Amino acid sequence: MMYYTQIKIIGLIVLFIAMTSFLHAQEEDEIIFTADPVAFTSELSNFLSSIPDKQSRVMIKDFETFKASYMPEENEWISIASIANLLVSLDAKPLSYFSRFINSINSFAQTSLSKYSLTNLLEAVQFQLQKPSPSLLQADNLLHFANRLNSFQELFQSGTIAWTLTGNNWSIEKDTSICLSFTNSTLTGKAVNESSPIYNLTARYYPLQTLLVAQQGHVNWESVNISSEEVYAELGDFKIDLSRSVYSIDSVLLTDKRYFDQALIGRFENKVVTGMPPSRRGYPKFSSYKRINQIKSIYANMDYTGGFTLQGSKVIGADIYNNKGTLLIYYDNRPFMRLASTYFLFTPTRARGVNTEVSMYFDSDSIFHPGLSFQYQKNRNELALMRDGLGLSNSRFFNTYHNLDLDVEMIVWHPGDSIMVLSGMVGSLENQANFESADYFSIQRFNEILLADKLNPLFGVKNCAEYYNSRVFTSGELAEFMNRPHHLVEEMLLNVSFLGFVRFDSQTGMIEVNQRTYDFLDKHAELQDYDIIRFQSDIPPPTPNGYLYIPSGRLKINGVKYIDLSTERSVRAYPSGNQISVYKNRTIKFDGFVQAGLLSFTGQDFRLEYAPFRIYMNHIDQIKLKVHIPRNDDYSDTYIT
């Protein structure tokens, strides 16, 4: 038994020795490349014999150039040979990973990198190939990065976008991961003849993560035709993923000498764009953290205050908090018009505002609209306030100077001129506008705003204000108080806001109850006097509905056929030429004809004074009296003049 056991042991030993010899012989067969510079070239030539002769000759020639110009040191030859053997052992074919490895080495023949960059690169590649799970892809990415960097000064390229580097003081270094370190260089994102550079850049780039980690940089707006002497931004510590075409950086300092004496701090965003003309580009973009920025004379006699964003060549009057900015316009060296919006757009040639609050000041009074489209054309010095059908634009102008609501489509003004023009929209077949006294009341109006269950919403608004002991509350609170669906309450609020009963911000849901609500309900309860002054202006273009003369406050209105002054006393005015002039607190002047019951008056220089509610007739041409003759039959009574 012992004899057979000994035979088995001897046999196992012989088998072990034979296998060890076989494996050792196999390893020796895999060592194709040596660290000897002369021998390596010959070994490389033999290995590349399987690829087309022309390609191999070019690769060998370039390798000879690399040896002669770069003159690798002994440790680098050892790494080169080791990587070549590792690639062979991982079955890297001559025309795939292996050829890219040799081309990457060859690219160091003429490089801007520091002397030890190749050593660090080779060590990083070896590390990737010697891991327990070797990563040919990661090693190839490093080699491809070095090749593109040396050959084309590229850090990253994908599709139509490439990030290129110019400058010097570059080196491949070992950090937490292999990286390219550089100082005072320019990094440029390029796409189809468009570029987006970062100047004076000191940073490290990690190619395996496509991550740029920077300490400083400098950008400007030359890509949108703004002088780099006037506008630029200083970048502090920041990171950029170069695999993306867009990036953002916090806490950037912007200098814009056109508008500000001091630098602004804010957020910077940029995007490598393609095929976009400078006037339409939305990048580079800077958004100030500061809520209140002041720009004096952004246009002649106009000052802007509010959020500031420089987006391409355009200045955006908006901030990240959605606060309203204001544009203050001066007339005769005093503030005359105030525009407020969460979004203004300013360019060198034009300006516009979305859902813009408008206030025009006349002494201590004003003409106000809660939300219009605002446009200004600098070359024509033309300002337009228009209804665009959005938001609160369908509301009236509320006018405490004339105490006359203005329901007009558009107001046009050339800032500095003394006259504003009231008209329909350009292209309208008819210029139509309506004018209504601030104290107007009719039971018809009261019934128009009833809800489906015949409840007037103004009672709900008034009672809710009393419940919360405040005229300011939210649409949600009102919906809960009225036990109505929120969307229906918001629709109701918009409608009553158009008539001036409340101020309603549909974005925030805030409600402010105006005094007009209380007055209107008091009129309904016959606790307060009211009037029925309401008239219409209808006139074909190009004649406008009217003119507002700024110095005097006179409102000249065209296309007025008649004005009802009192239904109870049957008083109606018919202005000659369909034209009237309205002054402070509804003083109305006109020439023409007044029908007052059985009397009628024709003349010039008639004047309605609202406070005593009397018509003063300074020049009467004719008075007519109708005489009532009752009839005893079934026919109507007869009137004779």
What does this structure look like?
This protein has 641 residues and is of the alpha+beta class. Helices cover 26% and strands 39% of the residues. The protein is built from twelve helices and 40 strands. The strands form four sheets. The chain has a 32-stranded antiparallel sheet that branches. A hairpin with a 5-residue loop joins strand 24 (410-413) and strand 25 (419-423). It starts with a helix and ends with a strand. Mean pLDDT is 90; it is low at 1-29.
Structural key phrases:
641 residues, alpha+beta, 32-stranded antiparallel beta sheet, three-stranded antiparallel beta sheet, 26% helix, elongated
The SS-based structural class is alpha+beta
State the end-to-end distance: 156 Å
Radius of gyration: 42 Å
Q: Would you identify the regions where 5 or more consecutive residues have pLDDT less than 50?
A: 1-29
Quantity of strands, as a count: 40
Number of helices: 12
Average of per-residue pLDDT values? 90
Shape, principal axes of CA atoms: elongated
Oligomer: single chain
Largest sheet, strands/sense/barrel: 32 strands, antiparallel
Strand content: 35-45%
Helical content (DSSP H or I, runs of 4+): 25-40%
